[in-house]
Specification:
Helix content: under 10%
Radius of gyration: 16 Å
Structural class: mainly beta
Number of strands: 13
Oligomer: single chain
Order of helices and strands: EEEEEEEEEHEEEEH
Number of helices: 2
């Protein structure tokens, strides 16, 4: 298993021949937070085309739109508490089904209702992203986000991107203030 740092890129399919289906597992703890409101983090995926933009709302896969890209990207469902060990939310990706004009899949996490609840990623600890081979259950790589955040309410965790016939993983770890709307705008969508 390979551990990545922010900014690192790694081959996924080239170094793992036959790899077509992966599970992106995302996890976090909110033990720094003592408010009365629940702390609900939401994983999402954006299908991106040339220019790193989504075409329409169907390219945004999240708890209210659990799959996209001809079923190539599937969100397994919302976890509203983040309790317990292991993955809090998972997104499954089948590289063989991704439409040929999709150049990237961006994986993001946002804090639900962050402004109203006074929450941000400065209160989140032990956030991680891992890539698992769905067929064997083997963890291929892991990216621990560290404690780089303060006021951000949305984070682009990683991007999986096409490189010729192969797919690579990029550990992005960039935060946004303005939550889901800022994230959607970044990818050319209106969050409404």
């Amino acid at each position: 298993m390979i551990s990545l740092a922010k900014g690192q890129r790694i081959d996924l399919t080239k170094t793992n021949p036959g790899l077509t289906k992966v599970i992106i597992g995302l996890g976090w703890d909110t033990n720094k937070y003592s408010g009365s409101q629940d702390f609900d983090l939401d994983a999402s995926a954006f299908l991106l085309y040339a220019g790193d933009k989504a075409r329409d709302i169907n390219d945004f896969i999240f708890y209210n739109n659990l799959q996209g890209g001809n079923g190539s990207v599937v969100h397994t469902g919302d976890n509203r508490t983040g309790e317990g060990d292991g993955d809090d939310e998972q997104i499954k990706i089948d590289f063989s089904k991704i439409p040929s004009d999709v150049t990237k899949v961006a994986i993001t996490v946002t804090i639900h209702d962050a402004m109203a609840r006074g929450q941000n990623f400065g209160q989140v600890t032990n956030a991680f992203c891992r890539v698992v081979d769905e067929q064997t259950g083997r963890e291929i790589m892991r990216y621990d986000l560290g404690e780089d955040f303060s006021i951000e309410t949305a984070v682009v965790i990683c991007e999986l991107y096409r490189n010729g016939n192969d797919w690579k993983f990029s550990a992005v770890g960039s935060g946004f203030s303005g939550g889901l709307q800022a994230l959607c705008a970044n990818y050319g969508l209106q969050a409404g």
